[in-house]
Hsp20/alpha crystallin family protein
Amino acid sequence: MPEERKKRRKDEESRSLQPEPLQHVMRSVNDLFHFPPVRGFLQTMDEFFNHPFPRVAFQLDFKETEDEYIISAELPGVNKEQIQIGIFSNRVVISVENREELTETDEAAGNFRRRMTKKLDSRSVSFPKPIIEHKAKATCKDGLLIIRLPIDKGKQLRID
């Protein structure tokens, strides 16, 4: 009996030392998810789901009166030349363009380096009622943009 036990123990030990039939496949699949390019793709996906919505570029305040819509935005450090306003029948798009240019010159080494960046932040506001486009007015003073959009009330039809 003790010999049978020794033999069984040797068989068990030899089986544990032999690789499992799917161990190589499992290691390959595991490596696939831990090395580029799949790893980089998975990290990008994780970043997207951790931060799915980019921060809002600038805040808008919206007010509706009986006669007009008033939109105001605080844009510190922005010149009026950087602002574009698109007006449509029931929507306004406000865009702010920021350009930055960096130039480095090293005459001794004969190097010239120029870097330009452009960032366009945009917000869109839709209205429940149409607006009168040609009477819209915008002002920008001290970083405060105010847009006044008269509401188109339509025409009242008299019944004869």
Summary: The mean pLDDT is 79. The radius of gyration is 33 Å. The chain is about 25% helix and 40% strand.
